[in-house]
């Protein structure tokens, strides 16, 4: 298999993974993914930017079959879907040196057992001339781990961004024009792994704002021929102002919580608010993560199992707490059979959400008139808060 040319002397040697359906034993991959690696050939030195997930090493191996020399392996990010084939690369190319950020070096040793003597760290902003191909290393922490950097190829104006701007999508076409066709996948990926670091992602965007970028070549998904649109999408996603949206993870066991969910959705819609409900019995958590990117309010709608929250909804609460979205408000609704601490347990599970709790409505069994009136009052309170932010 021959490496695929992106521009002269910059070649694709990565691997699509059409069949993978789960990442980190957590994240659904409805469209598969890819592990992108790029060969940059200078007159004096040859560099490989990132590697591939070890289970796809045979693809990289086939691409490199006729490449007798690699001098430098650029490790933009230590996570194993990009670095996992580096131990093999260092055996295949005994003269090769790994280049990484300072933070990444001990991580590469810890995670891959690399010989520290074969890793050279590069400074933020450092440039390296391969012979007509000049690499500039730009520290871009927290997209996705603290050690992550991006590599900019000056002559061709290509940003190798690793996870940043990536999307979990497998396709044979290496390119995408604009962001429209894959915006959902790119947003899903941002939501799943980068949203918790939103202020730092924004700083990274500022860091590259004066860089002339012709192509963004991420390490998952297609290469952007028009990078402006995905950069603008990232600006929108990381902006502090939420949208006029309520996200509502819910399940029901015997119908009481479902009645409350239906009533509250109608009440919110009547007040001009968009609602995105997710039945957690079947929901794709990636879709939930995407909805959390913009939502102003999270309403947790949860039945009681024994004395605590239903695990399917509680899992959504734990996920939301981990993803730290920009939501400003929250509320809890649900039902119980005979007693319970559902609402208290849910509240205690979201310390990282900087939300104002607008109320809780918990019915004993079927919702009664007082519960319905309390849901209407909750809808009023949510509408007032959205109006206060200028969203309504
Ligand atoms: Fe694609 Fe954070 O690894």
Compact description:
This protein has 392 residues and is of the alpha/beta class. The protein has helices at residues 57-63, 80-83, 86-92, 104-112, 183-194, 198-207, 227-238, 256-270, 285-292, 311-323, 342-348, 369-388; strands at 4-7, 10-12, 15-17, 22-23, 27-28, 33-35, 38-41, 46-49, 72-74, 97-100, 119-121, 127-129, 134-139, 149-153, 158-162, 175-176, 215-218, 223-224, 243-250, 274-279, 295-305, 308-309, 329-336, 356-364. It is built from twelve helices and 24 strands.
Question: Can you put this structure into words, describing what you see?
Answer:
By secondary structure, the protein is an alpha/beta fold. Helices cover 32% and strands 27% of the residues. It contains 12 helices and 24 strands. The radius of gyration is 24 Å and the shape is elongated. The model has no long low-confidence stretch (mean pLDDT 97). It binds MU-OXO-diiron (FEO). MU-OXO-diiron (FEO) binds next to helix 2.
């Amino acid at each position: 298999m021959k490496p695929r040319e992106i521009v002269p002397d910059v070649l694709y040697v990565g691997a699509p993974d059409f069949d993978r359906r789960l990442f980190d034993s957590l994240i659904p991959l409805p469209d598969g993914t890819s592990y992108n690696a790029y060969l940059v050939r200078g007159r004096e030195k040859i560099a490989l930017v990132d590697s591939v997930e070890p289970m796809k090493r045979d693809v990289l191996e086939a691409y490199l079959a006729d490449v007798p020399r690699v001098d430098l392996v650029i490790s933009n990010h230590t996570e194993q879907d990009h670095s996992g084939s580096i131990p093999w690369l260092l055996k295949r190319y005994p003269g090769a040196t790994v280049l990484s950020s300072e933070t990444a070096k001990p991580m590469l040793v810890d995670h891959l057992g690399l010989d520290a003597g074969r890793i050279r760290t590069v400074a933020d902003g450092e440039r390296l001339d391969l012979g007509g191909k000049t690499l500039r290393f730009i520290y871009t922490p927290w997209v996705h781990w603290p050690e992550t950097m991006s590599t900019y190829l000056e002559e061709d104006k290509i940003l190798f961004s690793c996870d940043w701007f990536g999307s979990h999508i497998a396709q044979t076409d290496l390119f995408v024009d604009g962001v429209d066709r894959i915006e959902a996948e790119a947003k899903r990926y941002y939501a799943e792994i980068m949203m918790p670091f939103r202020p730092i992602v924004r700083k990274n965007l500022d860091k590259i704002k004066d860089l002339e970028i012709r192509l963004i070549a991420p390490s998952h998904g297609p290469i952007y021929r028009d990078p402006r649109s995905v950069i603008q999408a990232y600006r929108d996603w990381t902006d502090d102002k939420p949208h006029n949206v309520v996200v509502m993870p819910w399940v029901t066991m015997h119908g009481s919580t479902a009645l409350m969910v239906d009533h509250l959705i109608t009440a919110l819609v009547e007040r001009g608010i968009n609602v995105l409900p997710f039945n957690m019995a079947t929901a794709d958590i990636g879709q939930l993560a995407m909805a959390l990117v913009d939502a102003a309010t999270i309403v947790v709608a949860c039945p009681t199992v024994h004395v605590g929250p239903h695990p399917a909804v509680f899992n959504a609460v734990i996920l939301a707490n981990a993803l730290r979205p920009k939501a400003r408000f929250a509320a809890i609704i649900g039902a119980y059979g005979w007693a319970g601490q559902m609402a208290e347990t849910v509240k205690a599970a979201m310390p990282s959400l900087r939300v104002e709790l607008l109320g809780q409505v918990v019915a004993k069994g079927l919702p009664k008139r007082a519960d319905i009136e309390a849901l209407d009052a909750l809808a009023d309170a949510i509408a007032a808060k959205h109006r206060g932010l200028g969203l309504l």
